[in-house]
Amino acid sequence: MIDITYYGHSAFLVKMGGKSIIFDPFISPNEKASEIDVSSLKADYVLISHGHEDHVADAEAIAKSSDAMLVSNYEVAVWFSEKGVKKFHPMNHGGSKKFDFGWVKYVTAIHSSTLPDGSSGGNPGGFVVKHEGGCFYYAGDTALTYDMKLIGEEFKVDFAFLPIGDNFTMGIADAIKAADFVGTDKIIGMHYDTFPYIEIDLEQAKKAAAKAGKELILLNIGESIKL
C-alpha cells in the first residue's frame, strides 16, 4: 500500500518504500493550491513528465531544498542540472531504471514540451512505476494513444493517474479508454479545473466512469489516500 497526496493540477506526492516522490510540482503559481506551503515539502525524488511551466514550476526549489534526485527526459533533466540541481537522472522513451523505491519506465505521451525559458523540453512522456506492492502508471499530459496497450501487456497496473481536463489532453471519455488499454479500473484524475480551458463537469465525469465500470478518484487539494 502506498500513500498519495494531491497538491493540485497534476502534482502528487507518493510515499512508498520509505521514500517520497513528487510528480510534476506546479503548486506555488496555482491559486487553487494557495494553502500548500511549498517550502515545507520534502522529497527524495522529483519526477517530471515534460517541460511545461504547469508541471515544473516548483521542481527546482523542491529538488534543491530536499537534495532530491530529479528524474525526467534528457533535455529536462539537463536543463535543471544547469540551474544548479545537483542530483539528476536523464531518461528517454522505452528506457527503464531501478531506483531504491522501485523500477521506473519512461513511456510515450502525445503532447508538446517547451521549458519556461523557451528551451526545448524534448519529447513528453509518462512513467510506469513498479514497486514491491504493485504497479501504477502516471501518464503526464497526453492524448489517448494505442501505445498504452503495450503498458497493459507488459504490466499489471493497479491504478493510473490520467489527465481528464480535455482541450490540452485527454478528456474523460478517452481516459476511460486509456484505463482499459493499460488494464486498470481505477483512475486518479488530474489536469482538470486549474484553468478555464480545462474546467469540466465533475459529476458528469464520475457518472461516465461509473457507467464504464471505472472508479474515478478526484481528490481535493491537500487530501491524501492510501492505495
Automatic annotation (TrEMBL):
PANTHER family: UPF0173 METAL-DEPENDENT HYDROLASE MJ1163, UPF0173 METAL-DEPENDENT HYDROLASE MJ1163-RELATED. HAMAP family: UPF0173. GO terms for molecular function: hydrolase activity. Belongs to the UPF0173 family. Keywords: Hydrolase. This is UPF0173 metal-dependent hydrolase A33Q_0794. The keyword Hydrolase applies. The keyword Hydrolase applies. Residues 8-191 form the Metallo-beta-lactamase domain.
